[in-house]
Amino acid sequence: MTTYKNIPTNIISGFLGAGKTTAIQSLLKQKPESEIWAVIVNEFGQIGIDGALLKNDDVEIKEIAGGCLCCVGSQSLSVGLNQIIRSIKPQRIIIEPTGLGHPAKLIDSLTGEFYQTVLDLKAVINLLDARQLSDEKYTKNEIFIDQSNLADILIASKLDTYSEEDKQLFTDYAMGFESPKLKVVMVEQGRLQLDWLDLPRSQNRPVAYPELHNTNQAHQHVDGACDIVANNVNWFMVEGHANGYFSVGWRVAGESVFSKQKLHSFIKNALDTGVIERVKGVLHVEDSWIQINSTRNEFQVSIQTELIYSILEFISSQSINLESLDSGLKECRI
Q1: What is the DSSP letter of 182?
Q2: In this structure, are residues 88 and 60 in contact, taking their beta carbons and an 8 Å threshold?
Q3: Phi and psi for 16 in degrees, rounded to 5?
Q4: Among candidates 274, 260, 280, which has minimal Cα distance to 320?
Q5: CA distance 243 to 261
Q6: Rounded to 5 degrees, what are φ and ψ at 125?
Q7: CA distances for 147 relative to 70, 160, 166, 197, angstroms
Q8: What are residue 90's phi and psi, to 5 degrees?
Q9: Domain boundaries, the chain
Q10: In terms of CATH, what superfamily is 220-330?
Q11: CATH 3.40.50.300 fits 7-216, yes or no
Q12: Alpha-carbon dihedral sign for residues 104, 106, 112, 118
């Protein structure tokens, strides 16, 4: 790796539903035509959705599914990173870790001996949804806390949805850090500015929970945490669980067509239960392919380029009734 020097590298972190993928999409639209970029996406779920959501003919996208980068293994990160560096010689690398991952180990890996002269880790950017700051489920979550602690740039990414109370909560929250942030911003729809990527990283940001990821107990991984169930060639479902969160994902043959209206009702009803935290997918509907990117607070649908199969993933803070969700999704088919 000695022939590759000081590649500008950015971590864009944030808890579930913070808007990381939307923010990266915004950055990719601003990429100078003459530059070669690569994006490494790490997902908690087993199916791998973000690679499809970020699909861009001008950018190399590498997916590492099934947990946080350090728990999937530094070897997985190194293999993926090394492949990208050698194959396309990127002039910038953007890394999106899972929303349930503690960034400290990832930072250590990227700044360690092996990558010390290969990568130039810039400011760590952390996104959050200011509406989550009124919910102790987030503000007392150790990973949520340290994602913000380690950020050089702290961004509330959904300004267009915030009340005045939300804005004040974010302002008060951002002012409360022991180590002041390099930049604190509220933006609409994840619209990050390109020049923020070149701001410097502080090496002295304290974490509240340094023991996280220092032991294997931090993620409470268990044997059989990924189970493949009730599958055939045209309908593939996989379940995963770790960190007290659960995921279920589907990969369905592209020939299957879903009702857009039925999908909307099915997903909205699932989110309204209060159990499902996050829904992402790319699906074949009546007259097009659509991208779904939703949380309890918002339901986003947009047109997506065609894939060879439909993919959908739910992430939950409680055990999921797989049979009910699977049958519900099947009923959405035309």
Answers
A1: S
A2: yes
A3: -55, 130
A4: 274
A5: 33
A6: -105, 125
A7: 15, 23, 19, 17
A8: -65, 150
A9: 7-216, 220-330
A10: CobW-like, C-terminal domain (3.30.1220.10)
A11: yes
A12: negative
Are 143 and 14 spatial neighbours (Cβ–Cβ below 8 Å)? no
| pLDDT given for residue 229 in this prediction | 47
Instruction: Tell the residue number behind the tokens 């699932």, with chain if given.
Output: 270
Give the pair of three-digit tokens for residue 303: 């047109």
- Contact yes or no for 70/106 (Cβ under 8 A): yes
Helix (H, G, I), strand (E, B) or coil at 8: strand
Task: Identify the helix (H) or strand (E) that includes residue 195.
Answer: none
Sign, CA dihedral 202-205-210-213, equals negative
* 19, 99 Cβ separation under 8 angstroms: no
Q: Output the CA torsion 78→84→8→35 (10° steps).
A: -170
- Residue 181 is predicted with a pLDDT of 97
For 292, the token pair is 């779904």
User: What's the alpha-carbon Rg for the chain, to the nearest Å?
Assistant: 19
Strands 226-232 and 92-96 come out as unpaired
**8 A C-beta contact, residue 141 and residue 208:** no
CA distances from 145 to 14, 63, 136, 223 (A): 10, 25, 11, 28
Please report, in angstroms and rounded to a whole number, the separation of the first and last CA atoms in the chain: 51
Q: Which residues of the chain are modeled with pLDDT < 50?
A: 1-2, 70-73, 215-230
> What is the rounded CA–CA span in Å between residue 39 and residue 61?
5
CB atoms within 10 A of CB 15: 24
pLDDT mean across residues, the chain: 86
Distance CA 42, CA 96 (A): 6
Question: CB–CB of 27/94 below 8 Å?
Answer: yes
Give the separation between CA 256 and CA 283, rounded to whole angstroms: 9
Q: What amino acid occupies position 277?
A: E
The CA angle 237-243-247, to the nearest 5 degrees, is 15
pTM: 0.81
Is the distance from CB of 201 to CB of 121 less than 8 angstroms?
yes
